[in-house]
Amino acid sequence: MQISVTSYDGQEAGSIELADEIFGLEPRQDLIFRMIRWQLAKRRAGTHAVKNRADIARTGKKLHKQKGTGGARHGSRRAPQFIGGGRAFGPVVRSHEHDLPKKVRVLALKHALSAKAKDGAIVIWENADLAEPRTKLLKAGFDKTGLSSALIIDGAEPQVNFALAARNLPRIDVLPVQGVNVYDILRREKLVLTRAAVDALEARLK
């Protein structure tokens, strides 16, 4: 797949060939869905908790005699049906993670990249470098190319000036190539890859 290479402000900088086994697959929504579900479950803290009847500091003395009141046979004020009692079947501290094979995760990433390529939503930059960390300068370049919602993937380490300028722009994310993931790819309209990012992805996923 041949695609043109530009600078961040839209100037032509040649072309590049993208590998079909990474960017040319027919996207499978089931794989992408499984991967996003796995990612979102993994990032949940799982620290939600309530007090059950064993955690309530109240007397355990029997409320009234067993028979003769015409009421229920209660044995504790800590029971869930009383105001101030413990909660029945409430959430407990736990992990929400579930297993997903590594081969499925790798395949899902390929299909997410292919989905962006199929939609024409991949942009290739020569590099992501700025002479100075000025958001105004970067935004002016984005306005020229109509870039308003994008995930920008650079090489092993994004340039400091570029990362500082981009962090003030809403719906613009900058990640190193090691941090590329399905959820972030799909939550933005455009996927911007530098030449270094393309080389690293093809070396990693081929």
TrEMBL record:
Q: Name one Pfam family in it.
A: Ribosomal_L4
Q: Which terms are listed as keywords in the entry?
A: Ribonucleoprotein, Ribosomal protein, RNA-binding, rRNA-binding
Task: Tell me the GO molecular function terms.
Answer: rRNA binding; structural constituent of ribosome
Q: Which Gene Ontology cellular component annotation is one that this UniProt entry carries?
A: ribosome
Q: Which domain of life is it from?
A: Bacteria
Query: Keyword RNA-binding: yes or no?
Result: yes
One biological process term from GO is: translation
Where is region (Disordered) located?
61-80
Transmembrane ranges, per UniProt, are none
Is Protease one of the keywords UniProt gives this record?
no
Q: What does this protein do?
A: One of the primary rRNA binding proteins, this protein initially binds near the 5'-end of the 23S rRNA. It is important during the early stages of 50S assembly. It makes multiple contacts with different domains of the 23S rRNA in the assembled 50S subunit and ribosome. Forms part of the polypeptide exit tunnel.
Per UniProt, subunit arrangement is: Part of the 50S ribosomal subunit.
Family assignment? Belongs to the universal ribosomal protein uL4 family.
Name of the protein described by the UniProt record: Large ribosomal subunit protein uL4
